[in-house]
UniProtKB/TrEMBL annotation:
Subcellular location: Membrane
Membrane-spanning ranges: 24-42
Protein keywords: Membrane, Transmembrane, Transmembrane helix
Primary gene name: citT_2
Natural source organism: Klebsiella pneumoniae
Membrane topology: Multi-pass membrane protein
GO MF annotation: an example: transmembrane transporter activity
UniProt GO cellular component terms: membrane
Name of the protein described by the UniProt record: Putative tartrate:succinate antiporter
């Protein structure tokens, strides 16, 4: 009589699902927001470097 071998996947092995993609989106969201703000025209009377710092600030707050 032959023994039947079964393999059990390791506990850490998880197939990619939409639930696994959510953390990736959450990590990328601050970068996306900051980059989008960099493409918005600088308000009149504000130096461009101040707008860049503001975009970085908002990205950090979102994160």
């Amino acid at each position: 009589m032959k023994e039947k071998k079964t393999t059990i996947p390791p506990a850490g092995a998880v197939k990619p699902t939409t639930a696994n993609k959510k953390p990736l989106l959450m990590m990328a969201l601050p970068i996306i927001v900051a980059v989008l703000l960099l493409f918005v025209p600088v308000p009149e009377g504000l130096p461009p470097y101040a707008w860049h710092y503001f975009a970085i600030f908002v990205g950090v707050i979102v994160g």
